[in-house]
Amino acid sequence: SGDLVIAQQRRMGLVKINYGTATRDGTFGNRGFFKGTRRDGDCANKDSRLSTVWHLGIDRVDTNDNDDDRIYAMDKRRKKIVVLNVSGECVDVISLGFKPRSMTIRTFNNETHLFVGGFVRRNRPAEYKFWTTNLTNNTTYALTGANSGFCDVSGDKGMYATNAWAIAVDGAGGTPSNLY
Predict the structure, then answer these.
(1) Inter-residue contact 25 to 33 (CB < 8 Å)
(2) Which of 116, 113, 103, 115 lies closest to 175 in space, CA to CA?
(3) Contact 82, 23 (CB under 8 A)
(4) Each residue's pLDDT tens digit in the chain (180 positions)?
(5) Strands (E), the chain
């Protein structure tokens, strides 16, 4: 639809701007904002509150219709990703168990994947964590160690990504063969 979803800092949540009118969409979330709630009834009573959203992504569920698109809001402080529909209602909360710093969504081979990178601060130096899930069939991969799904960017093969702030996926030939 061309509408803008804007992430705001300091618990201000998300706001949606209507492309056609250049005004805030008052029907989005709660009176034009999505900040989440401690026990969100739309998300099986999960905590959907947003503190500081660093990245947003959109999954085009059906490319012919934008009414079923999903908005992914990555919150570093709360170590999670909140998934919303285009009306600003919580659909899911993905608890990561680490502080995410980067996120992207990419479709290849007709399947959509969510990629997330961040830190686990158990010891010094902090361990970089890279994680992905296939949003089409709900298969989740930890991209480090023996359960590697696509590639190992840290862990036993060396610290190739120790301080990444952004992820871009090049699906050359319809495959995840080139991951940046």
Answers:
(1) no
(2) 113
(3) no
(4) 678 898 887 778 899 998 889 999 999 999 889 999 999 999 999 999 998 898 998 887 666 666 778 999 999 889 999 999 999 999 999 988 888 888 988 887 778 888 888 887 766 666 777 788 888 887 776 554 444 444 444 444 445 566 677 877 776 555 555 544
(5) 4-7, 14-18, 23-24, 33-34, 53-59, 70-75, 80-85, 90-95, 99-108, 111-120, 127-134, 139-142, 169-170, 178-179
Residue 45 tokens read as 């009573």
Q: Rounded to whole angstroms, how far apart are CA atoms 68 and 70?
A: 7
Residues 6+ apart with CB under 8 A from 69: 58, 59, 60, 61, 85, 86
Q: Which pair of structure tokens corresponds to residue 33? A: 């904002």
Query: Are 61 and 75 in contact, with CB atoms under 8 Å apart?
Result: no
CA angle 151, 155, 158 (to 5 degrees): 85
For 93, phi then psi, to 5°, come to: -125, 125
Q: Which residue has the tokens 């099986």?
A: 44
Hey, which residues does 75 pair with through a beta bridge? 53, 80
Measured from the Cβ of residue 120, the count of other Cβ atoms closer than 10 Å reads 14
Is the preceding peptide bond at 125 cis, omega within 30 degrees of 0? yes
